[in-house]
């Protein structure tokens, strides 16, 4: 009997130890697999797409939560960066394929871009052309280093009350921009209701503030996806809000040439903001947004460029030509392209005048005028000239190109020679010329004192501009370098 009791006791003890071990291992694993939400601190599984506490998509925090790093280590002699496709951002538009000068170096595979490193010669044109910033140039580990404003989980900068969202904050996707605009305004409302000063990382209690005279509760700079999303949320929460825009409503998207391509978004980016977005043409998207803006009664003041932004610790003073605004909080949603330098000629407000161009194939068969004498102008002209039945005229006020990259100079010379031999595209070079007026169907130029009317469908102006980062640095916002892992899709392919 004693032997039996001993055996039973041993079995029970063994079972208890095993149970405790499994329980402990499960607890450790659970703790390891859980992480706090940067916004509300609710703990959730690493693979979850939404925070169960505040409902915000996890991807909204990818960049603000990324570690700040120092300067990149110098590359070994002879090592050139190669393109890496971020498959979680790639929408399969094919822009990179058209931009690459090496046939077969990059192609679409399963509706995503794929780089053949055996063919690729590391030009980097695919990374420059990608409208989603889904291709980065890197060597070694699949990580991307990017310079961005220092922001907290509410997209507030190190300057109390100054927020940075959308493309200017480092993320260009439309859904990401919409999410960020709403998240930032929710925080603004909580802090205003609490009636206490802002600090980085401050979450604040809930609440809102009704419309009232005096300074604006929040001033939004930029009327793109992030800015409009923020303004709609401010309206919903009863905040007194105004939107100022240096161009027209949603100017970045309006000037972004996407005539035939869809504004597709990666399916894994979930929408948190209140704006409508779906696979649609640029024109359809703008039409719906303009209807939403009109019905909501948003205050959008176009044609007002911010000249200065100052804070006395209580109010921000934002100056535009002829106007000064006062606001408790400011949200910058200006985009990364900054302020393009304009020609200052009649007709430049027409939609045929573009300041950036990526989808070259959308202009096949068009009559194009490219203005400028730098590398960006030459690259735009060469890319357009490669499209079927597209004629390109390159206008530059100087008599020579003093600062071109040698490879661009060689390619331009080859294109000019091919044009006289019936090449794929026709390039005409007009040195010592300037645009006088842009009209529908035609553009007027002064060519060394002689007037000339040129049949034309689109004018692409690439004469430089003022980038936005120096402006926000003058506002006191710190720019830091962050490192994020690049999702190359290798794990999904292996699975």
Describe the structure concisely for a colleague:
The model is unreliable at about 20-30, about 200-210, about 260-265 and about 490-495 (pLDDT under 50). This protein has eleven helices and 25 strands. About 35% of the residues are buried.
Describe this structure in words.
- The protein is α/β, with parallel strands linked by helices and 495 residues long.
- It has helices at residues 2-33, 95-99, 125-129, 174-194, 225-236, 251-254, 282-296, 375-385, 406-419, 468-474, 490-494; strands at residues 34-36, 43-45, 82-85, 106-109, 112-115, 135-138, 143-149, 162-164, 216-221, 241-245, 300-302, 308-311, 316-320, 323-332, 339-340, 353-354, 367-371, 391-396, 426-431, 433-439, 442-447, 450-455, 458-461, 465-466, 479-485.
- The protein has three domains: 66-71 and 79-147 and 480-495, Alpha-Beta Plaits (2-Layer Sandwich), CATH 3.30.70.20; 151-338 and 468-477, FAD/NAD(P)-binding domain (3-Layer(bba) Sandwich), CATH 3.50.50.60; 353-465, FAD/NAD(P)-binding domain.
- It is 26% helix and 24% strand.
- The strands form eight sheets. Strands 8, 9, 10, 11, 12, 13 and 14 form a seven-stranded mixed β-sheet that branches. Strands 16-23-17-18-19 form a five-stranded parallel β-sheet. The chain has a three-stranded antiparallel β-sheet with strand order 20-21-22, with no helix packed on it.
- Helix 9 links the parallel strand 18 (391-396) and strand 19 (426-431).
- Helix 4 (174-194) packs parallel to helix 5 (225-236) and helix 8 (375-385) runs parallel beside helix 9.
- The protein is globular, with a radius of gyration of 27 Å.
């Amino acid at each position: 009997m004693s032997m039996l009791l001993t055996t039973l006791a041993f079995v029970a003890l063994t079972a208890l130890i095993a149970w405790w071990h499994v329980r402990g291992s499960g607890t450790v694993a659970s703790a390891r697999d859980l992480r706090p939400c940067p916004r509300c601190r609710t703990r959730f599984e690493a693979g979850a797409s939404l925070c169960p506490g505040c409902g915000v998509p996890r991807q909204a925090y990818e960049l603000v939560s990324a570690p700040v790093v120092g300067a990149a280590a110098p590359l070994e002699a002879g090592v050139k960066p190669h393109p890496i496709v971020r498959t979680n951002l790639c929408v399969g538009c094919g822009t990179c394929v058209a931009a690459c000068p090496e046939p077969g170096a990059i192609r679409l595979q399963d509706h995503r871009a794929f780089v053949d490193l055996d063919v690729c010669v590391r030009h980097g044109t695919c990374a420059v052309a990608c409208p989603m910033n889904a291709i980065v140039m890197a060597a070694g580990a699949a990580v991307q280093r990017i310079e961005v404003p220092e922001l907290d989980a509410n997209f507030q900068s190190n300057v109390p009350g100054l927020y940075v969202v959308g493309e200017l904050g480092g993320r260009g996707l439309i859904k990401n921009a919409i999410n960020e605009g709403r998240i930032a305004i929710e925080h603004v409302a909580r802090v205003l209701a609490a009636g206490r000063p802002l600090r980085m990382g401050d979450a604040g209690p809930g609440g809102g503030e009704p419309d009232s005279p005096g300074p604006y509760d929040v001033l939004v700079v930029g009327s793109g996806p992030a800015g409009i999303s923020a303004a709609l949320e401010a309206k919903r929460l009863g905040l007194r809000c105004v939107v100022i825009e240096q161009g027209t409503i949603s100017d970045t998207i309006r000037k972004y040439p996407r005539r035939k391509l869809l504004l597709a978004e990666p399916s894994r980016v979930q929408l948190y903001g209140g704006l409508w977005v779906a696979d649609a043409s640029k024109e359809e998207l703008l039409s719906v947004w303009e209807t939403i803006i009109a019905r909501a009664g948003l205050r959008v003041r176009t044609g007002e460029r911010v000249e200065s932004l100052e804070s006395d610790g209580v109010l921000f003073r934002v100056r535009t030509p002829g106007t000064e605004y006062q606001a408790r909080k400011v949200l910058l949603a200006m985009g990364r392209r900054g302020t393009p330098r304009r020609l200052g000629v009649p007709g430049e407000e027409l939609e045929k005048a573009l300041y950036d161009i990526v989808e070259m194939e959308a202009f096949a068969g068009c009559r194009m005028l490219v203005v400028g004498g730098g590398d960006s102008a030459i690259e735009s002209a060469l890319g357009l000239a490669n499209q079927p039945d597209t004629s390109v005229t390159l206008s530059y006020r100087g008599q020579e190109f003093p600062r071109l990259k040698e490879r661009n100079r060689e390619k331009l010379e080859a294109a000019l020679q091919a044009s006289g031999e019936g090449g794929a595209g026709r390039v005409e070079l007009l040195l010592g010329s300037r645009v006088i007026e842009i009209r529908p169907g035609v553009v007027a130029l002064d060519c060394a004192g002689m007037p000339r009317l040129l049949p034309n469908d689109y004018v692409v102006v690439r004469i430089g501009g003022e980038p936005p980062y120096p402006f926000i640095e003058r506002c006191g916002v710190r720019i830091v370098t962050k490192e994020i892992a690049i999702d190359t899709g290798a794990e999904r392919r292996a699975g």
